[in-house]
Amino acid sequence: MGAVEYSREGTPGKDDPQVARAMAVWDALTADEQRELFRSLYRRVEAYRRTSQVDHLVTFADSVEGMVRLESRTDLRQILRARRE
């Protein structure tokens, strides 16, 4: 029997176009960038656990959405990558 996935109402599916776009951005990140993004995520999760202030999670979600929007623009992604090299 495979894993059962439960999602709250309103959660987009794995094949949602926005999720696919975000995954394309993730795949384009370097391993160091992916590590830093996860570190930032976990810091916000831990901050929420310690304080119960949802703002920690909301501001991180807004930040990730902004990153996905910016990195999804092919021309901008190429410019950013060129500057890293």
Can you summarize this structure?
Helix content is 73%, strand content 0%. With 85 residues, the protein is mainly α.
Tell me the strand percentage band.
under 5%
- Which regions are unreliable across 5 or more consecutive residues at pLDDT < 50? none
What is the 3D shape? globular
How many domains?
Answer: 1
Overview of the structural elements:
The chain is an all-alpha fold and 85 residues long. The protein has one domain. 73% of the residues lie in helices and 0% in strands. The protein is built from four helices and no strands. The mean pLDDT is 88.
What's the structural blueprint in terms of helices and strands?
Blueprint (H helix, E strand, L loop, with lengths): L16 H12 L2 H21 L3 H18 L1 H11 L1
Helix pairs in contact: 1-3, 2-3
Which tags fit this structure?
about 80 residues; single chain; mainly alpha
